[in-house]
Amino acid sequence: MAQSKVAYGKVAAPARPGAVVRENWISFRYLTGVMVLLTLVSIFHVWSRVEVIDLNLRIGESNRQFRDQQQENKRLKVEVASLKAPARIEALAKGELGMALPTDQQVVLVK
């Protein structure tokens, strides 16, 4: 068998285990902090977008109700105008209540 010559002069010294753990721990804490911060920012962003959408829906609903109320108001004004019509009031007075215009003898002038 041939003898192998092994050179041990370039073998690296064993690393100190404490230094590697400390570097890993610092980077883990840093990454954890960054992840927590990103998570909080993301949650805030999503919450604010949901609130904006909800407010837009509420504004749209309020506008629809406002238009409905305006239309109802116009309808009621037309109804009031038709109920106040003198011809209608006179027809009701003569028909349902049996009233008639007064004669000259029934009119008394007050001075």
From TrEMBL:
Source organism per UniProt: Geomonas propionica
Family matches, as NCBIfam families: ftsL_broad (TIGR02209)
Keywords in alphabetical order: Cell cycle, Cell division, Cell membrane, Membrane, Transmembrane, Transmembrane helix
One protein family per Pfam: DivIC
Protein name: Cell division protein FtsL
Localisation: Cell membrane
Record membrane topology: Single-pass type II membrane protein
InterPro entries: Cell_div_FtsL (IPR011922), FtsL/DivIC (IPR007060)
Record-level GO BP terms: cell division
Transmembrane domains' residue ranges: 28-48
